[in-house]
Design a protein that fits this description.
Elements (H helix, E strand, L loop, with lengths): L8 H8 L3 E4 L2 E11 L26 E6 L3 E8 L6 E12 L1 H8 L11 H8 L15 E4 L7 E4 L13 E4 L16
Antiparallel strand pairs: 1-2, 1-6, 2-5, 2-8, 3-4, 4-5, 7-8
The structure holds a DNA duplex.
DNA sequence: CTTTCGATGATCT
DNA sequence: GATCATCGAAAGG
């Protein structure tokens, strides 16, 4: 069963943990995601379509790529039906294929840090605005759903200032390739 | 170990 | 002019 991108971003974010994402054959296992829903104050889509977020309002199962802090690219998967503006941010991948190419692109050796964070992951996989709006089911993308059940942990999203208490960040339990630890179960 | 801060530019008020 | 779904280097304990 392929991933159902017409589901809610929370469902999709959870389902993507353990899936394999490749871009031109380079990538690995998705180990960290975040959901951004259409009524979510923290979402880029909250104010309606703009030049930047237009692909967020396009068809589900396509990429939304934006520039972060003027220098990084970040990759999202569009969810729900076209026009809603829901998506999942891909935050970390366990490198599996094309590790040497990732090292070259990132300029570091430490495998743990190749794809641990949305900006790092995009750099390692060669994601840029060229990929914005492209369908995830066709080259250069390749997406293989999680084969078995994964143990998923949830927590608060990273780097946002609104809706900070929603537990919409998901991670593969005990993975060493996530961008940062999940904090204690009980919010402070 | 933790916290702070500069880079760098589009987007929004 | 302020804010940013970030990263990495530097400074502090």
């Amino acid at each position: 069963m392929p991933v159902d991108f017409t589901a809610s971003p929370v469902q999709v974010a959870r389902a993507l943990i353990g899936a394999v994402l490749l871009v031109e054959g380079v990538g690995g296992v998705i180990v960290e995601t975040e959901a951004y829903d259409d009524t979510d104050p923290a979402s880029h889509s909250i104010g309606g379509p703009t030049a930047r977020n237009r692909s967020m309002f396009g068809p589900p199962g396509h990429a939304y790529v934006y520039r972060s802090y003027g220098l990084h690219w970040c990759l999202n998967f569009v969810c729900r039906e076209a026009g809603r503006g829901a998506a999942v941010l891909i935050r970390a991948i366990e490198p599996v294929q094309g590790v040497e190419q990732m090292r070259e692109r990132r300029g570091i050796d430490d495998e743990r840090l190749l794809c641990a964070g949305p900006g790092r992951l995009a750099q390692a996989l060669g994601i840029t605005d060229q990929h914005d709006g492209l369908p995830l089911g066709l080259p250069p993308f390749e997406l293989r759903p999680a084969s078995g059940a994964s143990e998923v942990q949830a927590g608060r999203r990273v780097g946002i200032s609104k809706a900070i208490d929603l537990p919409w960040r998901f991670g593969l339990a005990r993975s060493k390739f996530i961008s940062r630890p999940f904090s204690a179960p009980q919010p402070r």
